[in-house]
Specification:
Elements (H helix, E strand, L loop, with lengths): L1 H4 L5 H43 L3 H60 L18 H9 L8 H6 L6
Helix pairs in contact: 2-3
Length: 163
């Protein structure tokens, strides 16, 4: 609904925003994971201290279970971070592919313009042998068609036989 009250965002702007959100989420996950690792170290020292005293074994058992939960959360954060990085890399790859597509389209358009304007082989005018971008030849080759052979008389006169 943002397009009703303001201008519509371009795909490049949307991609930039999404990339920003992904990077922000990755940083937040990394901070939380580091906090959990600090908590894990504190728990380990506390478990050792309480176990040395030897009187509160029930408390040690509860802390050990909490330590296991913390370790599971840390591994989940690692998985979540790698998934977000995968999404980020995938969007970057798609962006690269789109750029390549634009470049090839631009090159194809330039080739079409040059052949339509009499390009092709140097010195060949429009409709002369060798003019054109060769798409028809490639298409015919894919379809298995062959050009009919040019007779010697026609070759001398500069004509080509129609297929």
């Amino acid at each position: 609904m943002s397009f009703l009250f303001g201008k519509r965002k371009t795909p490049a702007e949307l991609l930039r925003e999404n990339k920003r959100m992904l990077n922000r989420s990755i940083r937040e996950i990394e901070r939380e994971r580091q906090g959990l690792q600090a908590q894990e170290k504190k728990l380990i020292t506390e478990i050792k201290k309480t176990a040395k005293e030897g009187q509160q074994m029930g408390a040690v058992k509860v802390m050990a279970k909490d330590l296991i939960r913390t370790r599971h959360q840390i591994t989940k954060f690692y998985q979540l971070k790698s998934q977000l990085q995968g999404v980020s890399h995938k969007s970057e790859r798609e962006r690269q592919r789109e750029r390549e597509r634009e470049i090839t389209d631009l090159a194809t358009m330039q080739g079409a313009w040059s052949s339509a304007c009499g390009g092709g082989t140097p010195g060949a005018g429009r409709g002369a042998p060798g003019a054109g971008c060769g798409r028809a030849r490639a298409r015919d080759r894919r379809r298995g068609w062959r050009r009919k052979p040019v007779r010697a008389r026609d070759r001398r006169r500069g004509r080509q036989r129609k297929p």
